[in-house]
Amino acid sequence: MRILLIGAPGAGKGTQAVRVAKHFGITHISSGDLLRKHVKQGTSIGRSVNQYVDRGDLVPDAHVMDMLRKPVLAANESGGYVLDGFPRTVEQAEKAYETARELGVAVQAAVFLDVPTEDLVRRLLARGRGADDTADVISHRLEVFHEHTMPMLDYYANREELVTVDGARPPAEVTLSLLGELEAVRQSLPE
Ligand code: AMP
């Protein structure tokens, strides 16, 4: 299975992606985790993206695409992937589609984890992960999500690949719905 998990910061993408990956025996790839790892290890990508991540701004597409190419292709060879945090803009979705289509590895389902803004803010403040989880950066990250990522939902809805799951419920309930929806997609795929 090749799945995208879309949601605002704090929507529970990471938690749910781990469960989806386990259920389908596929690889979980988180663009945010990979970027943070590059920053921590001080790689050339890490040094280029550091300031964007700390401010809660989107990292330029070229860095993100470079970083993801290898892990996505490797995951595809070994059963599939659940991508968490990428794509995040209509432009990234279009570029990813072009590349994936050429390679025959286009996405089969895009899931939107829908959570009201007030719940997101509460969760993010409680998480306090680091420089990008302070009150100011949180509100900026939510603005970036509304401006750049929400329009991407239409892109997948128009392609009839979008599934929306109510992410405001307890994590176990969200997982149950999510896996139910994805199993239905899997059943409908050609052999
Ligand atoms: P996340 O953990 O997914 O919320 O990502 C943390 C940060 O990494 C974001 O605030 C962005 O700075 C950066 N980032 C993650 N994924 C992407 C992406 N697909 N495009 C651009 N920047 C990204």
Q: How far apart, in Å, are the first and last alpha carbons?
A: 12 Å
Tell me roughly what share of residues is in helical segments.
55-70%
Number of helix segments? 8
Numbering strands along the chain, what is their spatial order in the largest sheet? 2-3-1-4-5
Unreliably modeled segments: none
Mean pLDDT: 94
Structural class: alpha/beta
Describe this structure in words.
This protein is α/β, with parallel strands linked by helices and 191 residues long. The protein is 62% helix and 13% strand. The protein contains 8 helices and 5 strands; from the N terminus they run E-H-E-H-H-H-E-H-E-H-H-E-H. It has helices spanning 13-24, 31-41, 44-55, 61-77, 90-103, 117-127, 135-158, 171-188; strands at residues 2-7, 27-30, 81-84, 109-114, 162-166. The mean pLDDT is 94. Bound molecules: adenosine monophosphate.
Any descriptors?
single chain, alpha/beta, about 190 residues, 8 helices, five-stranded parallel β-sheet
Q: How would you summarize this macromolecular structure in one to three sentences?
A:
The chain has 191 residues and is α/β, with parallel strands linked by helices. It has eight helices and five strands; from the N terminus they run βαβαααβαβααβα.
Topology:
Layout: E1 2-7, H1 13-24, E2 27-30, H2 31-41, H3 44-55, H4 61-77, E3 81-84, H5 90-103, E4 109-114, H6 117-127, H7 135-158, E5 162-166, H8 171-188
Parallel strand pairs: 1-3, 1-4, 2-3, 4-5
Helix pairs in contact: 1-8, 2-3, 6-7
Residues 9, 31-32, 35, 52-53, 56-59, 64, 85-88, 92, 132, 141 line the site of adenosine monophosphate (AMP).
